[in-house]
């Protein structure tokens, strides 16, 4: 991931992003400007995903496969939702909400 001028990485960890109902492994990075997912090299039919923090309306804890408490849902102002599997979902939620609050964009 290439950072833009004045962009700093706040946290980056392994995660999976649901793309077309399939969990794609890779890295999730939170910066002071965006949330960015990079799939692992060699994963077929996957792509990088990036979202400006100003487009996030809410971050919710969720269960994956309706039973595993390891997910976060990123709700966007346009009504779309992106889901991720992360190791410490509460920490991720807090980190994203902290960046949103720092920007006062919620």
CA-to-CA gap between the ends? 25 Å
The CATH superfamily name is Pleckstrin-homology domain (PH domain)/Phosphotyrosine-binding domain (PTB)
Low-confidence stretches: none
Q: How would you classify the helix and strand content by structural class?
A: mainly beta
The CATH class designation is Mainly Beta
Short description:
A 7-stranded antiparallel beta sheet has the order 4-3-2-1-7-6-5, with helices on one face. The chain is mainly β and 106 residues long. The protein contains 1 helix and 7 strands, in the order βββββββα.
Task: Tell me what the structure shows.
With 106 residues, the chain is mainly beta. The protein has one domain: Roll (PH-domain like), CATH 2.30.29.30. Helix content is 14%, strand content 51%. The protein contains one helix and seven strands, in the order βββββββα. The chain has a seven-stranded antiparallel sheet with strand order 4-3-2-1-7-6-5, covered by helices on one side. A hairpin with a 3-residue loop joins strand 5 (56-64) and strand 6. It starts with 8 loop residues before the first strand and ends with a helix. The model has no long low-confidence stretch (mean pLDDT 90).
What topology does this entry show?
Layout: E1 9-19, E2 22-31, E3 34-39, E4 49-52, E5 56-64, E6 68-76, E7 81-85, H1 89-103
Give structural attributes:
single chain; 106 residues; mainly beta; PH-domain like; seven-stranded antiparallel sheet; 14% helix; 51% strand; globular
């Amino acid at each position: 991931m290439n950072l833009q001028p004045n962009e700093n990485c706040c946290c980056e960890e392994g995660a999976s992003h649901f793309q077309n109902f399939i969990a794609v492994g890779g890295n999730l990075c939170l910066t002071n400007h965006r949330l960015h997912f990079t799939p692992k090299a060699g994963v077929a039919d996957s792509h990088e995903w990036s979202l400006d923090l100003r487009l996030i309306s809410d971050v919710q804890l969720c269960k994956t496969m309706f039973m595993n408490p390891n997910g976060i849902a990123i709700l966007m102002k346009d009504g779309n939702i992106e889901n991720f599997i992360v190791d410490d979902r509460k920490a991720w939620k807090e980190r994203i909400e902290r960046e949103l609050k720092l920007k006062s964009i919620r």
